[in-house]
């Protein structure tokens, strides 16, 4: 799962972005054209997923305290 996103109606991961990106602008599914959600909500969703995949940097620093540095 790379993008972590799929249209609930047609399953397409492609979205149509509004010409003007502000948090209230609505994005549409590129597959079926339905309105998905506001850009602001979409952005937060992607960012949250991104952060979860990368793990918490503070946590990693704590774990890596006694570990060899990366090459
Ligand atoms: Zn769709």
How would the blueprint of this fold be written?
Elements: E1 15-16, E2 26-29, E3 35-38, H1 39-54, H2 57-63
Antiparallel strand pairs: 1-2, 2-3
The structure holds zinc ion (ZN).
Residues 7, 9-10, 12, 29, 31-32, 34 line the site of zinc ion.
Give an overview in words.
With 71 residues, this protein is an alpha+beta fold. The chain is 32% helix and 14% strand. The chain has 2 helices and 3 strands; from the N terminus they run E-E-E-H-H. The protein has helices at residues 39-54, 57-63; strands at residues 15-16, 26-29, 35-38. A hairpin with a 5-residue loop joins strand 2 (26-29) and strand 3. The longest helix has 16 residues, at 39-54. The protein binds zinc ion. Zinc ion is lined by residues 7, 9-10, 12, 29, 31-32, 34. Zinc ion binds at residues 7, 9-10, 12, 29, 31-32, 34. Residues 50-71 are annotated as: Disordered. Residues 50-62 have a biased composition (Basic and acidic residues).
- Average pLDDT for all residues: 82
The quaternary structure here is single chain
The assigned structural class equals alpha+beta
Strand content bin: 5-15%
Overall 3D shape: elongated
Short overview:
Residues 50-62 have a biased composition (Basic and acidic residues). With 71 residues, the protein is of the alpha+beta class. The chain has helices spanning 39-54, 57-63; strands spanning 15-16, 26-29, 35-38.
């Amino acid at each position: 799962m790379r993008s972590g996103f799929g249209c609930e109606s047609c399953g397409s991961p492609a979205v149509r972005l509004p010409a003007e990106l502000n948090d209230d602008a609505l994005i549409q599914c590129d597959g079926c054209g339905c309105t998905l959600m506001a850009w602001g909500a979409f952005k937060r969703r992607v960012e949250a997923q991104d952060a979860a995949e990368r793990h918490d940097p503070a946590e990693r620093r704590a774990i890596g305290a006694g570990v060899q540095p990366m090459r």
